[in-house]
Amino acid sequence: MKIDEKIKIFKNEIKIWSKTLQVFPYDVKLERMKQWGYCSADKVIYFNSDLLFKRKELQIYVIVHELLHLKIPNHGKLFQSLMNLHIPNWKDLDKELNSMKEELSPVDSYNNSLR
Ligand SMILES: [Zn+2]
């Protein structure tokens, strides 16, 4: 699959979950970084570009995780119960992602906005 296609699918998944969760980021970016995802105080969400090469289940977990941070900035009880609701096996997915070695994307950067 071409990278443009992967980005398109990823972008669509963000749209779907944004609607489902009723949270709307100001902007979304794909970047090379150490974390899988990051939600800034000004409501911009950054996703690790390596996610494009992971299976959909893992992508969705990170998407839902970061989108929920627009509502809930911490990982407290409310955050966890919403994660349980939407992604019942999120703890396993989280472990799996954390166990992956830091990899570098084959493409240098996807600084293009996904908005
Ligand atoms: Zn988090």
Helicity range of the residues? 40-55%
Oligomer: single chain
The proportion of strand residues reads 5-15%
When the domains are counted, the total is 1
C-alpha-based Rg, rounded? 13 Å
Please tally the β strands and state the result: 3
Average pLDDT for all residues: 90
Q: Which ranges are low-confidence, i.e. pLDDT below 50, for 5 or more consecutive residues?
A: none
Q: List SSEs in N-to-C order.
A: HEEEHHH
Alpha carbon gap, first and last residue: 22 Å
Small molecules bound in the structure, each named once: zinc ion
Identify the notable features of this structure and list them briefly:
alpha+beta; binds zinc ion; 115 residues; Zincin-like; 3 strands; 4 helices; 45% helix
List the helices and strands and how they pair.
Layout: H1 3-21, E1 27-31, E2 37-39, E3 44-48, H2 56-68, H3 77-86, H4 90-99
Parallel strand pairs: 1-3
Antiparallel strand pairs: 2-3
Helix pairs in contact: 1-2, 2-4
Bound molecules: zinc ion.
Describe the fold and architecture.
It contains 4 helices and 3 strands, in the order H-E-E-E-H-H-H. A 3-stranded mixed sheet has the order 1-3-2, with helices on one face. It has a single domain (3-99), classed as Metalloproteases ("zincins"), catalytic domain (Zincin-like). The longest helix is centred in the first third of the chain and has 19 residues, at 3-21. Strand 2 (37-39) and strand 3 (44-48) form a beta hairpin. The protein is 45% helix and 11% strand. The chain is of the alpha+beta class and 115 residues long. It is globular and about 40 Å long. Zinc ion binds at residues 65, 69, 75.
